[in-house]
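TL;DR need structure tokens for one chain.
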Amino acid sequence: MTQGFNESSQQRPGIEMALNQQRHCQFEVKGTEKARENEGKLSDFLGSTEEDLELCGCEFALFLKITDSAHLPVHTPTIKRKEYHNRILFPTQHKTHRFFLTSFIVPTKCHQCTSLMVGLIRQGCTCEACGFSCHITCVEKAPKTCPVPFHQKKGAFCLDSQKGMGTAYEGHVWIPKKAGMKKGWQRALAVVCDFKLFLYDMDEEEDSTPNVVVSQVIDMRDGAFSVSSVWPSDFIPARRKEMPRMFKVTASQLSAPSNRYSIPILADSENEKSEWVSVLSELHKILRKSHSGDRSVYVLKEAYDNNLPLIKTTQTAAIIDHKRIALGNEEGLFVVHVTIDEIIRIGYMKKIHQIELIPHGQMVAVISGRSHHVQLFPMSALDGRKTDIHKLAETKGCQTVTSGTVCQGAHTCLCVARKSQIFCYKLFQSKKISHRKFKELQIPTNVQWMGIFSEQLCVGFQSGFLRYPLRREGIPYRMLHSHEPTLSFIAHQPVDALCAIEISSIEYLLCFKSIGIYTDSRGLRSRPAELMWPATPSYCYSLSEMRGRLIFGLSYTEPRASHDQAPPPKGAAPISSGLSARFPFGTECLSSDL
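>> reply
TL;DR here they are.
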């Protein structure tokens, strides 16, 4: 009996452990079910199948059937990661780190390379056991032992001068408020990282923390970069007692001829100011000695002086050719001849919201007026010729338009989005422009973006993209597979769609307001890399002539130039897109191999 009691005592810990694991699993299932019940209709729709919609009586199923491009096996083979508590875990070995993707809410440095993990969400990963945080690309380089031994830990400041990677210095400073220095100073976190000066806005409270959104970025690789103390001869409107604590950082500003822009920065003390000037000056010397080449993606050219009132009120624009630009504002549609300094008004339309050039059909489509109607006219009208304007009466309340070709280029197609409806027209032009509607589509929610790829209409909406066949009848396909576990976070964290880019016939780049992801034709993740935005984009634009580059409009508080950032003048508008000109927007060009 004693022997049996001892055996049962030895087995009891194992039994209790199994019971605890079972209770833990039951708790997780209940918690997951409760979380799913709280999801909105759109999230349910994004993650549901056709059969699910029919069984639950979802209102979307009454008019729309949507399917994934391919059925997934039980284990998704796209990325060698596993799902755990709705987080992606990286491959781990016994007694090593247990990494999962993390969305940081404050600026965070990588513990491996010490560079900032820039982005709005999913900037890096963190070890669940010891808290070691790093870039996704630094996971394989991180020390294998968990927790990291003290002798393997890197300090807060560690700069690789050869590669230009790492953080060299950081601290709290004061920068001018958005309305100008006369309105006072704005507290900010300044970080010198990767030979750039990052500035993050902060509240004035002492215990406040900065947001992950980058306020300003100044690149030290800019040829005009310099740092110096502020003197009375600089004519900076500051108090005399603040002058000893001030220094200025100078960089290029987009203008013609090229100008420089200086931002005054106020330190908390004279000693801190001296440290900032010394650090930035020494780093700039190191950079010049390393002979770092010009990494500019494109050299931007100012098309017109931003003092022109027409430029300041522009809401939308389109590049006609290398000599002409079409601009739309409240007053109407204008063509600016860049080389001969001439401006022509086109027609008598008012309130231009979007300009869509249709080169294949030699037409131009605009959304205009208070009622947001679509109007068509020949492209020859851009030369100033008088022509008839063709109005699409049923497009009242239109939000956006896109154009392309169908039937292997035989016909010109125009798609018009109005809330959750899309009208598809074939356009014809002989003596007069005419149209014929050949398809009407119902979208599960409001349309945020449209584009035509390979005779398919790509539609972007909150947390999703769909592909609709244009030549034939057929059901739409999700561009984000509903059973792809590594992409489920998009449906659970609603985010607006910016645009989609067809990289090849089997791969797409889907851009949302918080992140960019690569998917294949089945809607599965095609690359582990995710594109990070330093600030919330206002628009996104890409052209095939730009070799896959992306142009973003970012809400930086002041225009700045850098090796991969080249901001336009205040009030600049996106190319072929609508934009309010309330803020001085910057732009960023992503030169990643799309």
